[in-house]
């Protein structure tokens, strides 16, 4: 029956069906052969890539020792950029930057600060214990070495006050492995009066009631804060610690509090951070170990991923000289074509006035951005805490804070 039917079909449509079948079979064979060939070629490629990778040096990436930036890194300008607002900021928010360095780092680090972000400050000074004509440096009469950091900071600000008090409105201290986006620093400061006693940085919670600014990403003092520090603070042992210690950032933080200089909030209007004590990668993809000292130190809770960081971020720390050039390229040159962001300046504040605290909007789609760490290390208590959990954490934090001095010293940078 079947035979019959198909033979009828066969017989009945003989010429048409045969050619159609031939075509289909031909296509099928062709397809199989093509697949086979492409599979063989791909495995050939994989084989040759593996051979190259194992045998040939030219498959390796350059290591960090291969290149160091030279002084001839090519510069080019962008004559068609509209820098109207940045130019206005440069005139109205005059910024003196001073960079803490030492004789070992003049050539290795400090000169690359000058070639990259440093050149954008209105005034750029390098504070060292030795003279250097290329940078040049301000030769402070302070012995080198980490124990002398606090004395060095005081001498540096005394020099700045004596020689440049009237040349700038804001005074930014940075390390030679800090990278700062100077335009964004001016933008954050723009609404504030330089006569307001305030300073900004990345705020840490312990040791000082109002918090203190991490030394690594730098801190910026208003003109009035600088005056109080040098005129009322440094000479008065009740205000600022005489002599010297390693932790300059904690000491200046205590000093600022004694002098009624507010510890400002450097986050943007969305509550995203702008100044950071680590490199961008370490902030974007944070080290999650809850025992890491950082989680007990941060003043404001931070979100992970892109929610961590302001689109107008200001400063990062632990930036190698090479990466300073990479950041300069990424920030000042590379642009996605056809995307322009509209920007405008905020209104000015009166002396003593502050920006309202940021609105912290809950991340709308990212479950991970509200995780255990956020809950445990937020500056506010959860609404209905699990008593056992909270007690345990409090103990942990206290234990951590007792040992943190050691931890911290091991984590802190060489300057
Ligand atoms: C440059 O930007 C400023 C401020 O945003 C604007 O007023 C001006 O029209 C712009 N100039 C050009 C040539 O686009
Ligand atoms: C700081 O403010 C407090 C309270 O207003 C005041 O008693 C104190 O004298 C001020 N100290 C300085 C150094 O201005």
UniProtKB/TrEMBL annotation:
Basic and acidic residues bias locations: 396-415
Residue spans crossing the bilayer: 20-42
E.C. designation(s): 2.4.1.122
Membrane topology, as annotated: Single-pass type II membrane protein
Keyword annotations of the record: Glycosyltransferase, Membrane, Nucleotide-binding, Signal-anchor, Transferase, Transmembrane, Transmembrane helix
Coiled coil: none
Region described as Disordered: spans on this chain: 352-415
Protein localization: Membrane
Biological pathway: Protein modification; protein glycosylation
UniProt domain Fringe-like glycosyltransferase: residue ranges: 99-263
Pfam family, one: Fringe
Top EC class of this enzyme: transferase
Family membership noted in the UniProt record: Belongs to the glycosyltransferase 31 family. Beta3-Gal-T subfamily.
Protein name per the record: N-acetylgalactosaminide beta-1,3-galactosyltransferase
């Amino acid at each position: 029956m079947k035979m019959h039917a198909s033979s009828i079909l066969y017989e009945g449509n003989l010429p048409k069906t045969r050619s159609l079948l031939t075509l289909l079979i031909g296509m099928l064979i062709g397809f199989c052969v093509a697949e086979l060939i492409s599979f063989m070629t791909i495995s050939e490629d994989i084989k040759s890539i593996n051979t190259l990778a194992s045998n040939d040096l030219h498959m390796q990436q350059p290591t960090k020792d291969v290149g160091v930036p030279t002084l001839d890194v090519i510069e080019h300008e962008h004559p068609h950029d509209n820098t109207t607002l940045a130019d206005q900021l440069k005139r109205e928010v005059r910024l003196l930057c001073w960079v803490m360095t030492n004789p070992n780092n003049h050539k290795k680090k400090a000169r690359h600060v000058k070639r990259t972000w440093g050149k954008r400050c209105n005034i750029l000074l390098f504070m060292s214990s030795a003279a250097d004509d290329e940078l040049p440096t301000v030769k402070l009469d302070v012995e080198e070495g980490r124990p002398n950091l606090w004395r060095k900071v005081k001498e540096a600000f005394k020099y700045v006050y004596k020689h440049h008090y009237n040349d700038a409105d804001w005074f930014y201290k940075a390390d030679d492995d800090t990278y700062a986006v100077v335009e964004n620093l001016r933008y954050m400061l723009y609404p504030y009066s330089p006569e307001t006693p305030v300073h900004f940085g990345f705020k840490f919670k312990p040791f000082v009631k109002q918090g203190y600014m991490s030394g690594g990403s730098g801190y910026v003092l208003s003109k009035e804060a600088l005056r109080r520090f040098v005129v009322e603070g440094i000479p008065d042992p009740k205000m600022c610690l005489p002599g010297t210690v390693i932790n300059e950032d904690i000491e200046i933080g205590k000093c600022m509090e004694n002098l009624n200089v507010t510890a400002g909030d450097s986050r943007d209007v969305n509550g995203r951070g702008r100044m950071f004590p680590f490199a961008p990668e370490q902030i974007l993809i944070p080290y999650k170990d809850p025992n890491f000292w950082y989680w007990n130190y941060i003043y404001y809770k931070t979100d992970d991923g892109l929610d961590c960081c302001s689109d107008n971020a200001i400063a990062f720390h632990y930036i190698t000289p090479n990466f300073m050039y990479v950041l300069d390229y990424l920030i000042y040159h590379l642009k996605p074509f056809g995307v322009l962001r509209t920007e405008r300046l905020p209104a000015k504040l009166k002396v003593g006035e502050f920006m309202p605290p940021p609105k912290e909007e809950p991340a709308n789609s990212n479950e991970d951005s509200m995780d255990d760490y956020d809950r445990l290390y937020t500056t506010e208590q959860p609404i209905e805490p699990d008593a056992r959990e909270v007690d345990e954490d409090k103990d942990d934090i206290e234990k951590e804070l007792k040992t943190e001095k050691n931890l911290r010293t091991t984590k802190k940078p060489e300057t």
